[in-house]
Specification:
The complex is a heterotrimer of chains A (317), B (329) and C (297). With 329 residues, chain B is an alpha/beta fold. In chain B, the strands form 2 sheets. In chain B, strands 6-7-8-3-9-10-12-11 form an 8-stranded mixed sheet, sandwiched between helices. Chain B has a 4-stranded antiparallel sheet with strand order 2-1-4-5. In chain B, helix 3 runs parallel beside helix 5, helix 4 packs across helix 5 and helix 5 packs parallel to helix 6. The longest helix of chain C is centred in the middle third of the chain and has 37 residues. Chain C is mainly alpha-helical and 297 residues long. Chain C has one domain: MetI-like fold (Orthogonal Bundle), CATH 1.10.3720.10. The chains are: A mainly alpha (317), B alpha/beta (329), C mainly alpha (297). The interface between B and C is large, with 45 and 32 residues. The structure holds adenosine-5'-triphosphate (ATP), iron/sulfur cluster and magnesium ion. Magnesium ion (MG) binds next to helix 1 of chain B.
Chain lengths: 317, 329, 297
Amino acid sequence: MGRVVRRTGFAIILLLTVSALTFGAMNLLGDPLFNILGPAAADTTPAGVERIEAARAEYHLDDPLPVRYLRWLGDLVQGDLGVQFSSAGQPPVADLVVERLPRTAVLLVLAQLMATVIAIPWALLAAPRVDSWFDRLSTVSTFLVVALPNFALGVLLKYVFAIRLGWFPQTYTADAPLPDRFHQLLLPALTIALPAAAVYQRLLRDDLVSTLQEEFILMARSKGLSRARILFRHALRPSLFSFVTVFGLTTGALIGGSLVVENIFRIPGLGSAIVEAVVREDFPVVLAIVVVVASVFIVVNFVVDAVYAVIDPRIRR
Amino acid sequence: MAGSGTAHLRDDPNVLVRVEHMVVEFPISGGRVHAVSDVSFDLVEGETLGIVGESGCGKSTTARAVIQMPRPTSGNVFFRGTDLTTLPSEALRQVRPDLQMIFQDPISSLNPRRTVRDIIAEGLRVWGSRGTWTPERIDELMAAVGIDPRYGERKPHQFSGGQCQRISIARALVLDPKVIICDEPVSALDVSVQAQILNLLEDMKERYGVSLMFISHDLSVVKNISDRVMVMYMGKVCEVAGSDDLFARPAHPYTRALMAAIPGRHSDDDDDGVLEGELPSAIDPPTGCRFHTRCPHSQQICKTTEPEIRGIGDGHFVACHFPQVAGVE
Amino acid sequence: MTSTDTGTVTVTEVGASTPDPGTRLGRLFWVSVAWIVIVTVAAALAPWLPIDDPDAIGGDSGLDTALTAPSWNAWFGTDTLARDVFARTVHGARVSLVVGLVAIVLGLAVGGTLGILAGYVRGAFDRVVTFLFVVLLSFPSLVLAILITSLLDRGLVTIAVTLGVLGIAPVGRVARSATIQYAERDFVRAARMIGSSHRRIIVRELLPNVAAPMGSLALLGMALAIVAEGGLAFLGLSVSEGSTWGKLILDGSQTQTLTDAPWVAFAPIAMLFMTVLALNLAGDRLRRLGDVRTSAI
Ligand SMILES: Nc1ncnc2c1ncn2[C@@H]1O[C@H](COP(=O)(O)OP(=O)(O)OP(=O)(O)O)[C@@H](O)[C@H]1O
Ligand code: SF4
Ligand SMILES: [Mg+2]
């Protein structure tokens, strides 16, 4: 129990630090006034100066940074992420996040599922045949896949499966019916999933190989248990524990990957949102997305850690 | 046993190291480890002091606290009259070359990335020559400890454990130290090599006039090399005596038990069987005499009152309410 | 080892006579190194090599046409503006490699220094540094890169420094744990006994040992930095001036170009892939060698 409290406390401290750092960097390196008014912040006409003064007052820009951070944090907790100043009508940033986040999330979940579904059978096939041609080929292919950056892989997959073979659409249509949208996400998800699958396969395979040499496995074998049963019931389960940890850590890389892949397949998710915002210099949007994404990453790792603690064989024993 | 007290400290003008009431404790979650509790001893110039005791009794901690790594929790360590425990770190660094150490693990003792000659000569690079040795004479020093100087450019992993200890000895000697503390220098070696290293140590001691503190869990190793022996149990001193005297008439029940465990040695007392019972926890050590939970002679007073070290003649000191000496009881 | 009664001992050489596959770098390592050297030299000498001007429309002769397939005349074909793709790929290596190199040097210098100091000093300083690493690792790396590049300009230096910042925490963690592992060994204690200063202990005793795992990490890290630059390029956030592999691939990946002239994207992809593969292989091999050495000790 003490561990849970400590871990939760640490995750919260981490969330606060990360958001404070991002907020601080945004406000110290960028010009907060510019963030709110856009180019009008440089307006020196009397009307412009008046607007600037009004904005200063409205957003309390003369308050010290920590005060502003706390106010921003308070708003954030209530779901208020500020406004997108560069868009017509200055709609709330939260609307944009709510619109874009689910697509990125679905893409990520789909990718992690695919990676797992590919990696587990692959490892189960390779591990009992250490150094066979299949195992060697697997190892070589994992090396090759890992050396292929996701954007390059995306371009290749797009060329083969979307352009040449035409099995998948080349871009995403946000208002298509649900099954179509799912279909449209498959290729991008595969792009993200393949390198992750290679990493998972390598890890699981190494782990399985050493588990298979352990005493209790040899005992199960001598009792005449079938090979499949040994693999699934006795070898895979302990090996999944180390898998869980890497699963959480990889999520960070996959988030980065999805931002890139969204841009290749023109999926309007968080990735394209943050890029558009950077180009428009719409800093409240950049700030919001960075904080949201980093928070998700921290929370995922926290959950993975908690799951691990619950299922850890050493704790159960 | 338990022995606190300073009756065994000597008033010799040639005392090099004098440790008084040294305590070393390590805070850990859930308490503190009482590794060394009120230990006093001294080392006279030219002498070899053996320190024996079971694994975990605080021998290494004692040795390290003498050289202030880490500094003791309380107590004083005098080297030639200077209290090292209060010395500022730069002044301490100036004193350090006089106190060298040889460790148990020959592999961990030597930097795997440096050549042997480099390792041995390092002290001269820091301080320049301090007397006997100069960079030009490293070959001679290597030969003196039994390492062929032609192998000076090799890395430690190309040498055996015994050779590594020879290299460690050369590294310690290069600064012309006054004291070398040997923390189980032969425990990790094959028995056949042990004697060679012990001979080398005695040789070097004679030739270069150093004094030794020699730590071991093995009484028979300590017996031959030491002039004086101190027996420790759970961070306390049990018995201090000249080596021959200690082996001729061990007075402390713990010492007697240790000797009874030496193969081929017969005890004159049936009670001195092999040690029974678990070693108590160093986090929560027994009250009174720390040995009372395992001592065959334990009485009520042993549980409540810690025995003081007292002399029983001939420079023989013991910390026990009921020392096993003819005529005393 | 055998010992003689004179006390002088002869040395048995470990691993010198018996070939142990684990202690050899192997052919693949040297092939990888060769590739890295070739790419680096070609990139460095690109302006003086007898290849087309990467920006000359129609190649040096001005006669090439847009989107021609690879041929003897234009090895990797031409792009939409009839520029020579081979020349562009070789020149693109310049920025990519410089970015990767600067990034990993920065990551090693800052992360390595912090990690070694934290591992040696321990205590409060260690806790602060460790927390800093955790915070840095809490940003998915590309997101951190986006954040920094969005706040600063997109010059070569900024991008390289940004990618270097991404390397600080991973490098620092490895350096810290390696330092802790070595700092507990007796040779460090012996160095303090000799009277070496802390500075000397760090430089002469710890650094040579910690440098080994960091060397293999440097190769892997350089690969990661080059890939990260490509990711930034795909987001339109890489260096604003000059071309990089990432920008070339992005150009070639426009749907129309990719359909009509896939070589425009595939040439830089192949180059990037082989370079990353070579760096990964060489790094992996070095790491294994280090593992074998340490486990033998
Ligand atoms: N850094 C430390 N932190 C906590 N406890 C420690 C530390 N160093 C030593 N101890 C504890 O102090 C006690 C004495 O240890 P020490 O190493 O001095 O014994 P020793 O007599 O040298 O034993 P050995 O024969 O095993 O070398 C042990 O209980 C040990 O666990
Ligand atoms: S007789 Fe008493 S004092 Fe002496 S060792 Fe035994 S328990 Fe300790
Ligand atoms: Mg010890």
